[in-house]
Amino acid sequence: MLDSKGERIVKKSLWSLSIATALLIGSVPAYSGTVSAESINSLENEQNNIKKEREEINGEINSKDSNIDKVIDRQSEVTSQIKELDSKIKSTTAEIETVSEEIDSTTAHIEKLREEIEVLKQKIEERTLLLEERARAIQMSGGSVSYMDVLLGAESFGDFIDRFSAVNTLVEADRKIMEEQHRDQKSLEQKEAEVKEELAALEDKKANLDNLKAELDGQKEEKKSLMAELEAEQGKLEKEKSELEVKDSELKDLSADVESKIIAEQERLAELARQKELERQAEEKRQQEAAAAEAAAAEEAAAAKQASASASAPKQTSSSPAPAKQAAKPATSAGAWTTPAFGTITTEFGYDVLNGQSRYHYGMDVAAGVGTSIVSAASGYVFQAKSGENGGYGNMIMITHNIDGKTYTTVYAHLSSISVSNGQYVEKGQYIGGMGDTGFSFGSHLHFELHEGAWNGAKSNAVNPRKYVSF
Questions:
Q1: For a 10 Å CB count at each end of the chain, is N or C smaller?
Q2: Measured between alpha carbons, how far is 92 from 94 in angstroms, rounded to an integer?
């Protein structure tokens, strides 16, 4: 029991300590000690809605990809048709050039035949005139003189020979004229026939050329139509690509928005964890000061009581020794971090090989039986407690911590059970769930990550947990 003086000293010390503690806590922004999970649940609902929307968009993208593949196949088919058509056009053009060359050659031949015919006509005309003149000469002589009369009228043998030679010459001349006339007339008829055949062939070639030109025109129209179809298909493909790009842009915006909300929520929880740590430190200081004040008051009261008893009691030659002084024992901490689970370390932080493939392991793996206790590695707020596949993490918990003014995030993956909820405050060493084999896992174990700062999908701030936690 303390006397009235000792009680006053204790009350005065406690009063001063209460004022100091109130001032310290009052300097911290007002946050509730209990975190409402409403914002986290709202964020998770938004994540679920975005996930559903992403699934719908991915389905639409897959459908459009299929359509794009069909368009590409169609483009390939039309391109083959155009190549085939180009080959036909090239062949037709070559044939037209050949026909044109033949027509030119035929025309030149016809012109040559016509020149020859003109020459023959001239010769025939000249022979005709000669024969006509000879006939007139016979008529002028009475028309009764024959080659026999000419021979019989010879006055001597020499005259007969001369007359015979002359008659023979005339007869031979007439015979040659007649033969040449006959031959030339036959040649003229033959050449005229050839001209007619050449002309007929030329007409046929012209008709063929016209048909080839018409076919070429048709092929050109066909190519034009195919090109228009290809351009339409290309336009459709570009439009689909544009729509996909818009969808992709919207998806990126949604992801960025969610990421910003996640970061904001992490920062909010980190601030709550920081204030919780300040409150804990203030409470610890208050308890230490209260214990010190109470010990000091008790010591002072004991001394006063001893002095009063010595003054009233008779002196003795010997006295009992004074009782030993009891020193105060302030609360101590085992540190900010603790091991999240006990078991066998199967994989360290950093590069390793999984299923024959090199990878970077962003945490540590602790293996033990299913259901082995998992505790929070430090005090903080549960940022996410979620069941499911979770990108291979399986059932997982994320906790935001604030230690010595710095933010940290711990991740606990592949759990068999979860015993905390979003927004819940947990103490260091508090049970949060059981070890398991969920998600992308090859046996019961805890995958534990430690991030300096808020968690991000790129895991750019993941550090080796051994930097802070002793295993």
A1: N
A2: 5
